[in-house]
Design a protein that fits this description.
By secondary structure, this protein is α/β, with parallel strands linked by helices. It has two domains: 2-110 and 203-246, D-Maltodextrin-Binding Protein, domain 2 (3-Layer(aba) Sandwich), CATH 3.40.190.10; 113-201, D-Maltodextrin-Binding Protein, domain 2. It has nine helices and ten strands. The protein has a five-stranded mixed sheet with strand order 2-1-3-10-4, with helices on both faces. Strands 7-6-8-5-9 form a five-stranded mixed sheet. α3 (51-62) links the parallel β1 and β2 (65-70). It is globular and about 55 Å long.
């Protein structure tokens, strides 16, 4: 669905790449943020990050299958070195050094931590989170961050929708997540009264990492990133994610907003 929406199908991508080397029928992709498997009977929930969706677009565009495996970046270095995975996808600091046995390919997807609050909040600066409650979702990059840096009392929820519902019903003074998603959410009329916000002073970027002995794969990924930029994939994904999450919150909100 996202491939057709954001990339315009396979023909444009084939034109952009010319006649590249044939890729294997399946790529093994290591990730540090995978969408949890949906348990039968559980509520449908949008994941914390776009990572799994990015891999789905990759597979659809290249016409291949992918096998996903979850691991953090440090452990993934060993997997790449031993050729147990073909590439790794995850977030890294903008200035993070690249290990010498890897080719790093930024996807052009950059995020900052952002806090949103009710418009009548008395919080306007990050240090004012001291002793205040902050909602975070468990697979985001921000679990523990406001507690360790500002002394906030964190409440961890399974998904972004659950955390946002808690914010709406007054369980938390603020919610922290990626700015690109929250900015899209705040465009929706039902979220206007939660438009008070704070933006952190550091950024992280999503990037592929490939073993140095796979330059052809690295080149394919670099060309694909160029296509995604032209097709505005990131805004398309986040607009859809924001609408889906807002609908999930709407369906679950059985009480009126507090205050």
């Amino acid at each position: 669905m996202f491939a057709a929406l954001a990339l315009g199908g396979h023909s444009f991508y084939s034109w952009a790449l010319g006649q590249p080397e044939v890729l294997p029928a399946k790529l093994v992709v290591g990730m540090d943020n995978m969408t949890p498997v949906l348990v039968a009977g559980a509520k449908v929930r949008t994941a914390d990050a776009i990572d799994t969706q990015v891999v789905e677009v990759l597979a659809s565009t290249l016409g291949i299958s992918v096998e996903l495996t979850q691991n953090n970046e440090v452990a993934q270095d060993d997997e790449l070195t031993k050729n147990k995975v073909d590439l790794w996808l995850g977030m890294a600091d903008l200035e993070a050094a690249v290990m010498p046995n890897r080719i790093s390919i930024p996807l052009g997807y950059v995020v900052k931590p952002m806090a949103i609050m009710r418009n009548d909040t008395d919080i306007s600066q990050w240090p004012q989170l001291l002793g205040r409650t902050v909602c975070v979702s468990q697979n985001s990059h921000y679990v523990g961050w406001t507690n360790s840096r500002y002394g906030a009392i964190e409440r961890v929820y399974p998904t972004p929708a659950d955390a946002l519902l808690a914010l709406r019903t007054g369980e938390c003074d603020a919610l922290v997540h990626d700015d690109v998603l929250l900015n899209e959410l705040l465009r929706l009329p039902e979220w206007k009264k939660f438009s008070a916000h704070m933006l952190a002073d550091f950024s992280r970027q999503l990037r592929w990492q490939v073993a140095v002995d796979q330059p052809e794969l690295a080149q394919r990924l670099q060309q694909l990133v160029h296509v995604w930029k032209k097709q505005a994939l990131w805004p398309a994904l986040n607009q859809r994610r924001a609408r889906d999450i807002a609908f999930e919150v709407y369906l679950d909100q059985v009480v009126t907003d507090c205050h």
